[in-house]
Design goal:
disordered C terminus; 10 helices; Beta-Lactamase; single chain; disordered N terminus; two-stranded antiparallel ribbon; alpha+beta; 2 domains; Arc Repressor Mutant, subunit A; DNA-binding; six-stranded antiparallel beta sheet; DNA-binding transcription factor activity; DNA binding; 8 strands; Tscrpt_reg_IclR_N; 267 residues; GAF-like_dom_sf
C-alpha cells in the first residue's frame, strides 16, 4: 500500500532530471548528451530536453567547445541553503580578498560534501604564476589542508567513519597513506587551529587552511591558501598560518560565531 501511494505521487520526468544532476555530480568536467545516455539508459530526446531545460534554468552550464554539460554554481547556493549557510560566500569574499592582498597567493573556500571537500569559490593570487581551480572541484580529504581541517572538527563518530571509508591514494612520496598516522595529523589540526598540506598531492605546492564556524560553533567550511613551496617555505608557516586563521575568524564572526574556541598559532 505504501509503495502504491509513493508511486502515485512520483513524477517520472522529475526523477529523471534528478538522475541527470546526480550523474553529473560524479563528472567534474561534465558529459555530453550521448555520454549521459550511455550512463542513464534514457532516450536521447529525453536527455536532450532535460539537459537544455536545466541549462536554461541555470542549474547546468555548457562548454560550447566540447558540448559538455556540467553542474553550475546555482546548485552550490541550493546546497548551502540546505545547510542554512546560503550567505557564506557573500560574507567570506572581503576577508578572503584582504588575505590575498596580504599574502599575494590564491585564497579558496570550500566545504565538506559526503566524503570529499568541494571548492566553493576563490580569490586569485596577484603573482604572475598563481593557482586557478574551478568552483566545484573535488578535493580528497587525506591529502589536502581543507580536507584535514573539515575532518578535524566533525564529531568523533563522523570523523572515524569518514577515515574508515577513505581510499588513501598515494600521489607521491609525501602523501599520508596510513590511516593511523592520518588520524594523528587530523588531531594535530584541532590542537593548533589550522591544517597543512606539505606537497602531499602535488609536488612543489604547499597549502594552509583554517576552519570557519557558524553561530552554533559547527564547522561549515574551510578557508585556505595555496602556493609554490618556494613562496611558502616551512619557516614562513607560523606567520602565514596566523594570517589564514585571522581570515577564518573574521568569516566565522560574520556567520554569527562568537565563542572564542579557536586556537590560533600556539607554536
Amino acid at each position: 500500500m505504501e509503495t502504491e501511494t509513493s508511486n502515485k505521487y512520483s513524477v517520472l520526468m522529475l526523477e529523471k532530471g534528478m538522475g541527470v544532476l546526480e550523474l553529473l555530480a560524479d563528472y567534474h568536467s561534465g558529459l555530453t548528451i550521448q555520454e549521459m545516455c550511455s550512463h542513464l539508459s534514457y532516450p536521447k530526446t529525453t536527455i536532450y530536453r532535460l539537459a537544455n531545460t536545466l541549462l536554461e534554468m541555470g542549474y547546468l552550464g555548457k562548454d560550447e567547445d566540447t558540448n559538455h554539460f556540467f553542474l553550475s554554481r546555482k546548485l552550490f547556493r541550493l546546497g548551502l541553503a540546505a545547510l542554512g549557510e546560503s550567505n557564506i560566500l557573500e560574507r567570506a569574499i572581503e576577508p578572503m580578498r584582504r588575505l590575498r592582498d596580504e599574502v599575494k597567493e590564491s585564497v579558496m573556500i570550500g566545504t565538506l560534501v559526503g566524503n570529499e571537500a568541494i571548492l566553493l569559490d576563490q580569490v586569485l593570487g596577484s603573482h604572475d604564476f598563481t593557482f586557478i581551480l574551478k568552483s566545484g572541484t573535488h578535493l580528497c580529504l587525506h591529502a589536502s589542508a581543507p580536507g584535514k581541517v573539515l575532518l578535524a572538527y566533525q564529531t568523533d563518530k563522523v570523523r572515524d567513519e569518514l577515515i574508515a571509508s577513505m581510499e588513501m591514494t598515494r600521489f607521491n612520496e609525501n602523501t599520508i597513506t596510513d590511516k593511523k598516522r592520518y588520524l594523528q595529523e587530523v588531531l594535530k589540526v584541532k590542537e593548533r587551529g589550522y591544517g597543512v598540506d606539505l606537497e602531499e598531492e602535488i609536488i612543489g605546492v604547499n597549502c594552509i587552511g583554517a576552519p570557519i564556524f557558524n553561530q552554533y560553533g559547527e564547522v561549515i567550511a574551510c578557508v585556505w591558501m595555496s602556493g609554490p613551496k618556494g613562496r611558502m617555505p616551512l619557516e614562513r608557516f607560523p606567520e602565514l598560518a596566523e594570517q589564514v586563521c585571522k581570515c577564518a575568524r573574521s568569516i566565522s564572526e560574520k556567520m554569527g560565531y562568537r565563542i572564542n574556541c579557536l586556537q590560533f598559532i600556539e607554536n
